[in-house]
Automatic annotation (TrEMBL):
<dbReference type="GO" id="GO:0032196">
    <property type="term" value="P:transposition"/>
</dbReference>
<dbReference type="InterPro" id="IPR051491">
    <property type="entry name" value="Recombinase/Transposase-rel"/>
</dbReference>
<feature type="coiled-coil region">
    <location>
        <begin position="22"/>
        <end position="66"/>
    </location>
</feature>
<keyword id="KW-0175">Coiled coil</keyword>
<dbReference type="Pfam" id="PF01385">
    <property type="entry name" value="OrfB_IS605"/>
</dbReference>
<feature type="domain" description="Cas12f1-like TNB">
    <location>
        <begin position="106"/>
        <end position="179"/>
    </location>
</feature>
<keyword id="KW-0815">Transposition</keyword>
<dbReference type="InterPro" id="IPR010095">
    <property type="entry name" value="Cas12f1-like_TNB"/>
</dbReference>
<dbReference type="Pfam" id="PF07282">
    <property type="entry name" value="Cas12f1-like_TNB"/>
</dbReference>
<protein>
    <submittedName>
        <fullName>Transposase</fullName>
    </submittedName>
</protein>
<keyword id="KW-0238">DNA-binding</keyword>
<dbReference type="GO" id="GO:0006310">
    <property type="term" value="P:DNA recombination"/>
</dbReference>
<dbReference type="GO" id="GO:0003677">
    <property type="term" value="F:DNA binding"/>
</dbReference>
<keyword id="KW-0233">DNA recombination</keyword>
<feature type="domain" description="Probable transposase IS891/IS1136/IS1341">
    <location>
        <begin position="6"/>
        <end position="94"/>
    </location>
</feature>
<comment type="similarity">
    <text>In the C-terminal section; belongs to the transposase 35 family.</text>
</comment>
<dbReference type="InterPro" id="IPR001959">
    <property type="entry name" value="Transposase"/>
</dbReference>
Amino acid sequence: LGTNPHFLVTSEGEMVEAPRHFQKAEEKLAKAQRELSRKKKGSNRRKKARLKVAKLHRKIANQRKDFHHKVARKLVNRYGTIVHEDLNVQALSRSHIAKGIHDAGWAQFLAILAYKAAAHRASGSVLAGRRVIKVDPKYTSQDCPVCGHREKKPLWVRAYTCPQCGALLHRDVAAAQNILARAWTGPSGVAIPCPRSPGL
């Protein structure tokens, strides 16, 4: 919890670092908001300060969206089937991990991913047939992908060690492999948004 720098992890072990756009700009944004609060209401200086805050928010949103498009394109180009946990993003946004959820922008990312996969299906291109599948997220990080043994561990434990068969994997890689098993339809790769990103 708070130590994993990854936005998503694949079943093959590839880890995409979370860019944390909001977190990186937070200090600058807080300063701009303080300056805005000090300006007299109705003044030109307040108007300029408000525009500055809006510009910073726009920049963060654009950076996040660009990142989402690039990652989604990479996944759609690489995999025939992309599987992710059916996360209740709205509920997570009201939890103690809300700040990290907002910064990651999972709802937007998953929408972009689904759109790109559907566009390929409709295009009739060599990449046609890309599918995005949601699976139940329960126990994906607790089950051993090798033998199926279930071992409850606190979220801050990042290594999955199975006491039953001795398997040792990164916890998120183990979860990705479990998710792949739940939606297995052929020799495809799998990628999951990782709900254990920085600040979560």
